[in-house]
Write a structure and sequence with these properties.
Distance between the termini: 8 Å
Helix content: 10-25%
Shape: globular
Strand content: 25-35%
Strand order of the largest sheet: 1-7-6-3-2
Largest sheet: 5 strands, antiparallel
Radius of gyration: 15 Å
Length: 109
């Protein structure tokens, strides 16, 4: 379910944008939600990047190493992975909701 390493937007064609974050109960790290946008497509009104819901993800951020340096996210769960875990019964609106995901994220990450 969770992945190690690079975010789903790690390809140069995709871009991620963090939209919200909250601290865990211990206060030692945060959970952050990021929308992922696909490569730009030309439309009448100009270049547009569409939201890629399946690649959008929650990650753990704000962890600190022994030297006091912030570590990059090591674990994340994409909407595609979470939807599989819920056997297709998880909407993107639920996944993107801090209120809905707050009690569920620890089992994913």
């Amino acid at each position: 379910m969770s992945r190690q390493g690079a975010a789903p937007a790690s390809s140069a064609r995709f871009q991620d944008q963090a939209t919200h974050e909250f601290r865990d109960e211990s206060g030692t790290f945060s959970y952050e939600f990021s929308n992922v946008y696909g490569p730009p497509e030309q439309e009448r009104r100009g270049s547009v990047c569409a939201l890629d819901e399946d690649r959008s993800y929650w990650s753990i951020v704000g962890r600190v190493d022994e030297m006091g340096e912030e570590l990059p996210p090591r674990r994340l769960v994409s909407y595609a992975d979470a939807r599989k875990a819920y056997r297709g019964r998880l909407s993107f609106a639920q996944f993107a909701s801090e209120m809905y995901m707050r009690p569920r994220l620890p089992k994913f990450l």
